[in-house]
Write a structure and sequence with these properties.
Rossmann fold; 468 residues; 5-stranded parallel beta sheet; alpha/beta; 41% helix; Arc Repressor Mutant, subunit A; 12% strand; elongated
């Protein structure tokens, strides 16, 4: 005996409840899809906008829905949105269970008329349709036809997931432990300055000095001891390269903070990924990124789940996320806005910033160092004459090379001393090439002209004679 289809007639209230149940993932989010606005509900439920407002007032009076004014993806202005309350969710699931058993008519791929349950209709005609869409089509047209263009392209099940995701490969751009280093000599004062900075809880520090003075070696040595003392510390050591971009740094930071973009394990409770440009040349809204990053880093539940899962409930020292940006001078210009935004985030979150650079940075001003205590600075000079003397004694060349003369010729530069240890030459050819490539050749022409004049003099000269 052939089963007759039911006469489908979905009440307005049931339409709204089903629609909001389908978008339950938007509940309590900062930025949502337009489907939970009045116009989105109107289109999905085949209702005039005024009827949506009347239906929502009735549901809100019974405490089945609540309204919030939220940001809408792809739009500039905030709009009123609705979401189910726990009671509304329970009622919606009851209605869904009842309506799913309704019988609807379909015409399959062979053209055969069949009567099936509403929750099975979409799969039988290979259409990407929700239960509400099936019921609304059955109510207004009666039969759902296989291949109907209004149902979208025919979709078949596939077990192969796409491999392209926004955070793909981000794990390879940073380290969670400092890089291995050679032996460090001296630097007791610099190590104490780093300890004082970290204990003072000033948001950021800039460690700067000319190329080869051992900045990265010093920081890596200090970080190794710090990680041993603070088990709760989360480190992100990001080495910059000339081809790096602010967007690349932002993506790597989100990956380190536990944000996940893979469809089967997506986790982004504060919609941080939506702040990143998805197409080439698109604008990176750094201010929006800053706001949501601050929101995420001040959410204790999110931090405990992804960043500090093993941290104790009570501790004398709060857990920190230390972002170390090595060779930050590569992003000195292009990353200026992002660095400033991260510094602002660090002031009110567990984030701490440590920049390693050959030059000073311009994303903060002198007041941030001198009076506001937002930034600290540490200049890395050459090694002292006492350290040079100890080094020469360790390599048994103190008789052939006088420590004071070596210090005068090299300025205590660690690379010059390493070349002396390897080759026995106080002024090695590789050392001179290094000076040319990394220091002299990158100077502005005006500074090089001054050095050319001074190189032929054996006493100081007035600035007026230098023509500066």
């Amino acid at each position: 005996m052939e089963v007759e289809p039911d006469r489908v007639n979905v009440p307005v209230e049931d339409r709204v409840l089903l629609h909001l149940l389908e978008h339950l993932s938007e509940r309590d989010r900062h930025t949502v899809e337009s489907e939970v606005t009045r116009s989105g509900i109107s289109q999905a439920c085949a209702l005039h906008p005024p009827n949506v407002s009347r239906a929502m007032k009735n549901l809100a009076r019974r405490e089945l829905v609540t309204s919030l004014t939220r940001s809408i993806k792809g739009e500039n202005r905030r709009q009123r949105t609705w979401q189910l309350t726990p009671d509304g969710e329970s009622l919606a699931k009851e209605r869904e269970s009842r309506l799913a058993s309704s019988r609807v008519s379909i015409r399959d791929q062979e053209g055969t008329m069949l009567t099936v349950r509403a929750d099975q209709a979409a799969s039988r005609i290979e259409a990407h349709m929700s239960l509400l869409q099936v019921l609304m089509h059955a109510q207004h047209e009666g039969v759902l036809n296989y291949g109907d263009i209004r149902f979208g392209s025919i979709r078949t099940d596939s077990s192969t997931l796409g491999s392209l995701t926004l955070l793909k490969g981000a794990h390879s751009t940073y380290h969670v432990r400092p890089p291995p280093i050679r032996r460090i000599r001296g630097r007791e004062a610099e190590l104490k300055s780093l300890d004082d900075w970290f204990e003072s809880r000033v948001s950021g520090m800039l460690v700067h000095g000319i190329a080869g003075t051992g900045k990265t070696t010093l920081i890596s040595h200090w970080l190794s001891g710090l990680l041993d003392r603070m088990q709760s510390l989360r480190l992100m050591f990001y080495p910059c390269h000339p081809w790096d971009t602010p967007l690349g740094l932002a993506i790597s930071l989100l990956h380190r903070l536990g944000i996940e973009s893979r469809s089967n394990d997506s986790w982004d409770p504060h919609d941080l990924l939506d702040t990143l440009p998805r197409t080439a040349g698109a604008h990176f809204d750094i201010d929006l990124f800053r706001r949501r990053l601050t929101e995420y880093l001040t959410d204790p539940l999110a931090l405990r789940e992804r960043v500090f899962p093993d941290h104790e409930m009570e501790s004398d020292m709060p857990p920190y996320i230390l972002l170390v940006i090595d060779d930050a001078h590569h992003l000195a210009e292009s990353g200026r806005d992002l660095f400033g935004a991260l510094l602002q985030v660090a002031e009110i979150t567990p984030l701490r910033l440590l920049f390693i650079s050959r030059t000073t940075m311009t994303f903060y001003d002198r007041r941030d160092v001198l009076t506001r205590n937002r930034m600290a600075e540490l200049a890395i000079p050459g090694l002292s004459e006492d350290v040079v003397k100890t080094w020469l004694e360790d390599i048994d060349v103190s008789e052939q090379a006088d420590a004071s003369e070596v210090h005068r010729l090299t300025g205590g530069h660690p690379l010059a001393l390493e070349l002396l240890e390897m080759y026995g030459d106080v002024i090695h050819g590789d050392w001179l090439s290094f000076l040319d490539q990394e220091i002299l050749n990158v100077l502005p022409s005006s500074d090089r002209a001054v050095l050319d004049v001074l190189a032929g003099r054996d006493r100081p000269m007035p600035w007026s004679e230098l023509g500066v």
